[in-house]
Amino acid sequence: MSLVELMLASGLLLGSSAASLGVWNRVATTLQEHRVELEQLGSLEAEVQALEARLRDPHQDPLGQPLSCEEQLQRLVARLENQPPQSGVVRTLEKPAGVDVLLIHLQAGGKERRRLYSPAAFGGCGGDPAGLPAEAPAQAEDPAQGLAKGGGNGAL
Q: What pLDDT digit, counting tens, does each position of 51-61 carry?
């Protein structure tokens, strides 16, 4: 093998090795980025689940009396502010004026989750703790009986 052939072969080997190392470097970088993203998503989802468990706590004061929606929101905000979110998660609480709801924004890295919490949705804004009316609702008239009495609009 002559010197020219040897130099050409070593140049090809060096070029292909450099290209291969570049590909492996890119693959390793991409895998690391995906691993970090999965960790962020995992901590974000863990925070969402912990938050939803806190939102489902009973909404009563220590004496067992149901709280109003406003009182429930105030206690929830105080409780959330005293409990820091998972590491890497940023939690923002927002209460729109005049509405008994709480907007909860969770962010980790470039991912974001939002929750709209209304105490009324979980039952019991004052009154009965189960959120049910104190009296049973009036029974609706059976439509078949109304038609038998000549009621209705005549349309089928």
A: 777 776 655 55
